[in-house]
Write a structure and sequence with these properties.
GO terms for molecular function: hydrolase activity. It is a single chain. The protein is mainly beta. It folds into 6 domains: 1-41, no CATH class; 53-117, no CATH class; 158-172 and 198-556, 3 Solenoid (Pectate Lyase C-like); 570-676, 3 Solenoid (UDP N-Acetylglucosamine Acyltransferase, domain 1); 688-739 and 783-851, Head decoration protein D (Virus Head Decoration Protein, Chain: A), CATH 2.40.300.10; 744-778, succinate dehydrogenase protein domain (Rhinovirus 14, subunit 4, Irregular), CATH 4.10.80.40. Helices cover 10% and strands 42% of the residues. The strands form 6 sheets. A 12-stranded parallel β-barrel has the order 13-15-18-21-24-27-30-28-25-22-19-16. Strand 60 and strand 61 form a beta hairpin. The N and C termini lie far apart (127 Å).
């Protein structure tokens, strides 16, 4: 039947558009009606198919019928009463081949039938009765035979003493809670509702689906307990290859709901998955009331656990208050395990990836789209016996991934008394990746100050990308990265959002040095600290904290906003460059740039630069370098300059190859010396050269009074005095300020020169001034410029002087009570200009004078 529909409707005319749509709709309706009639006719027809179109036991019906017809004809045509011809014919197989012996032909056909023919049987046909009372164990054994069979179970409750499935068996009910298998009241505690038949030799190709398995824990007056090892579960697969467990509900086992395992949990073989299961798929199952775990794996690989629900364990396999009963547990020796879209509720741990001390930890485990609701610990990764500083490192706890997982309202649970609720805990594991993790708490629930997420116990190399946390108002911190002797480290958290949650956002413990926080916001109400660490080792980039008393507290310092903190060799805005140590940085440069030493800094460079030694730098320069093992050697604002001198800054300019000869200015930090190849110039309107002197009476002398010496101190000059200088406010160069410390801090020789000694500064021996043993650095020191008794006295140059009415331009002066008056001879200086004429009320005028060394 072919439909021809209008593809392009005419939208220019409404009537034509409607008519075209109606035509297409009628065509489709007619076609569907024709198909419906054809299907009904096909169902009732006596000749719907030819014999070529129908298969029977692996053959087309035509082939099967023609083979039987030809054999009957052969027997009839060749019969002579002795049956010899029948035996001859029996050696001919269905393909027309003749076997030498009848046995060989039978063996060959048997093998072919085993491969091609699938028996479908119903247990009720073998005596099973789904009445909840009749023991159907023998009927199931008979129905199974030697395997290679699909066994159907109908609605109702089948009582069994433990079903042992052989290889190549499909064991199928009519649905969860429609078909139920329950253990007989007299079944011992070490039995399973279903397991595979051969734990030691192994089985393969088993399908179990669409039923409920009830371990009947209350049988024998409720005395049934877990018997240890792999026993006492609803469903155990031990050493099975290729199995499917689909839509199976397990109820109240003493141990596990579903256990995918080796025949024993006690494995010593280095090939620890050799006797475990391989290629198992558990899908759409529900586990409830389990004494230990809902779904668990041991020593098995290639396990797929999808779309399951594990709810509210009983915890009866453990001591009261110590039940480590988990929803899904990937346990000892498991590897290559995938969990997709599962749900856990009311467990001690929703998903646990763990191992005991003596056995290898699960590896290559991947959890996708899981939701944990009100489990105590939603997700817990650990290797027991490898946590503490005195315990060995785990060599197998590796490679776990959590993608798009949710931890919703973790809570305390009496199954494991006192165990702190957590959304995620990682212990001992390395190479863990968490992508898109959401933790949602109950703001009213008392989490008793515990952290929501904990990285601890020697875990390493943890990558968290896309973390969302909210609602844990009564927790201690949202993320805790534990320090100490068994600290975690190498943790990277990026693209995180913490909103209306714990008082402290991300807390880093002592001794943790390799944490990276990137692209995140912590926003809460009434919080205390956004990001905290006892040191400054964390790399922090683009992180914001809002609503906390302190956005960050790092190394004891409080921050109102989270600082950007980047460590490690750093290069930015540079076309090339090699920071060769983890404490060197290169910023904004071109050319060959190499920072060789520790704590070196190169910035604003063209034409290349290099540094050696420690604490050295080149900045804002062209083709300049520091050389040698010295420390604190710097080149700034220079071209083609080399500096080899420690504790100094060099500035210079030159052509040709870089050299120390191109220095023009050198600032010596040790000696306090300034060297320059050209003039030192004051470009402001400062006038004179001056030096500090102390007044004789300790009182302040106002500006522009003339002073004379009395010993080594000064007073206002008077008649007959030799004038030293003038109290100046215009000095361009001032000596003797002692601005930084006590003038006698350093020892001097008899000629006033500073005495030096050699010291070790932690890296090398350097020469420094020898400190006076009388110097007390704890005493507060006030510079001379802040003390009234010390005065800046202009000695040479242009100075402003108070004058009386006798002074004129061109005069030299003497002094009366510090005020200049005209000198008849051998006077002081020369008056250049009367700036302010004499004012009798003030008692002085002001003149500008020039003072030379001759005076």
């Amino acid at each position: 039947m072919a439909f021809r529909l209008i593809k392009d409707y005419d939208t220019t005319r409404n009537a034509r558009y409607i008519a075209q749509q109606r035509a297409d709709t009628e065509t489709i309706e007619d076609g569907l009606n024709s198909l419906d009639d054809a299907i009904k006719t096909h169902k009732t027809s006596q000749t719907a198919h030819t014999s070529d179109q129908i298969t029977h036991q692996g053959f087309s019906l035509r082939t099967y019928v023609e083979s039987l017809y030809n054999r009957m004809r052969n027997l009839i045509l060749n019969a002579d009463g002795t049956n010899v011809k029948e035996v001859v014919d029996a050696r001919v197989d269905t393909d027309g081949n003749i076997a030498p012996l009848l046995k060989e032909r039978l063996d060959r056909d048997y093998m072919r039938l085993n491969k091609r023919i699938k028996r479908v049987v119903h247990v009720d046909d073998y005596g099973a009765v789904a009445d909840g009372a009749t023991d159907s164990s023998d009927a199931i054994v008979k129905a199974m035979g030697n395997g290679k069979v699909k066994i159907k179970l109908g609605p109702g409750v089948y009582v069994v003493r433990g079903v042992k499935l052989k290889s190549n068996v499909i064991f199928e009910g009519d649905g969860m809670d429609i078909t139920t298998l329950i253990l007989h009241d007299e079944t011992p505690s070490d039995e399973w509702v279903i397991t595979n038949a051969d734990h030691q030799g192994g089985n393969k190709n088993i399908v179990i689906r669409d039923m409920t398995l009830d371990w009947n824990r209350e049988r024998q007056n409720g005395t049934m307990k877990a018997m240890g090892g792999v026993k006492s579960s609803c469903l155990l697969l031990a050493q099975v290859k290729n199995a499917w467990v689909q839509r199976v509900r397990t109820v109240n086992p003493a141990l596990h709901g579903i256990d995918i395992s080796a025949p024993t949990y006690d494995i010593s073989d280095s090939d620890y998955t050799k006797n475990g299961c391989d290629s198992i798929w558990i899908d759409g199952c529900i586990c409830e009331g389990y004494g230990d775990d809902g779904i668990t794996t041991h020593y098995s690989k290639n396990i797929f656990i999808t779309n399951n629900r594990c709810l509210y364990p009983s915890g009866t396999a453990h001591a009261l208050g110590k039940a480590n009963s988990n929803g899904i547990e990937v346990d000892d020796g498991s590897k290559d395990v995938w969990l997709f879209n599962n749900y856990t509720e009311g467990n001690v741990r929703g998903v646990e990836v763990k191992a005991h001390a003596k056995w290898p930890a699960p590896s290559n485990v991947h959890v996708y789209g899981h939701q944990s609701f009100r489990d105590v610990r939603a997700y817990d990764l650990r290797h027991i016996g490898h946590h503490y500083a005195n315990e060995p490192w785990s060599e197998t706890a590796r490679d776990v991934t959590l993608v798009d997982c949710t931890a919703k309202e973790p809570i305390f649970n009496d199954l494991y008394a006192g165990l702190e609720p957590k959304a995620l805990v990682i212990s001992a594991y390395q190479r863990v990746t968490v992508l898109g993790f959401t933790a949602l708490g109950d703001p009213t629930y008392d989490y008793k100050g515990t952290p929501v997420i904990a990285f601890q116990y020697k875990s390493r190399k943890i990558n968290i990308n896309g973390l969302n946390i909210s609602g844990f108002a009564k927790a201690g911190s949202d993320v805790r990265i534990y320090g100490g002797d068994q600290r975690t480290d190498d943790v990277r958290i990026s693209n995180f959002t913490i909103h209306d949650s714990a008082p402290e956002g991300i807390s880093i413990g002592g001794g943790v040095y390799y944490v990276t926080l990137m692209n995140g916001i912590a926003h809460t109400r009434g919080g205390s600290i956004g990001i905290s660490s006892p040191n400054n080792q964390a790399d922090i980039t683009a992180v914001r904290a809002v609503g906390y008393t302190n956005a960050a507290v790092l190394a004891g310092q409080k921050y109102s906003s989270v600082p950007t903190n980047i460590k490690g060799g750093f290069r930015a805005a540079a076309r090339s460059g090699s920071p060769l140590t983890d404490t060197s940085a290169i910023i904004a440069g071109s050319g060959t740039i190499i920072a060789k030493g520790e704590r070196n800094f190169i910035a604003g460079i063209a034409g290349g630069a290099s540094t050696e030694g420690s604490r050295n730098g080149v900045m804002f320069s062209y083709n300049s370098h520091t050389k040698g093992a010295s420390g604190s050697s710097v080149v700034m604002a220079s071209k083609n300059v080399i500096n080899t001198k420690e504790y100094s800054i060099a500035l210079g300019h030159g052509d040709g190859n870089p050299s120390e000869g191109n220095k023009k200015i050198e600032l010596d930090a040790i000696g306090g010396n300034v060297r320059a190849t050209n003039r030192v110039e004051s470009v402001s309107d400062l006038k004179d050269f001056a030096e500090y002197f102390e007044s004789t009476d300790g009182h302040k002398i106002e500006a522009s009074y003339l002073v004379a010496l009395e010993g080594e101190k000064i007073r206002k000059a008077d008649a007959g005095d030799k004038i030293l200088g003038v109290v100046s406010k215009t000095a361009g160069l001032v000596l003797g300020g002692a601005a930084f410390d006590w003038k006698d801090r350093y020892l001097r020789d008899e000629f006033g020169g500073i005495i030096y000694r050699e010291v070790y500064d932690g890296e090398r021996v350097i020469t420094v001034p020898a400190e006076n043993p009388d110097y007390d650095p704890s005493e507060e020191y006030k510079p001379r410029e802040e003390r009234d008794e010390w005065h800046v006295i202009g000695l040479i140059g242009q100075v402003f002087v108070r004058i009386d009415s006798t002074v004129r331009v061109g005069d030299s002066v003497s002094a009366i009570k510090g005020i200049a008056t005209k000198a008849e001879s051998n006077g002081y200086g020369t008056v250049m200009k009367i700036e302010v004429p004499y004012d009798e009320e003030k008692g002085y005028g002001i003149a500008k004078m020039i003072v030379t060394p001759q005076h």
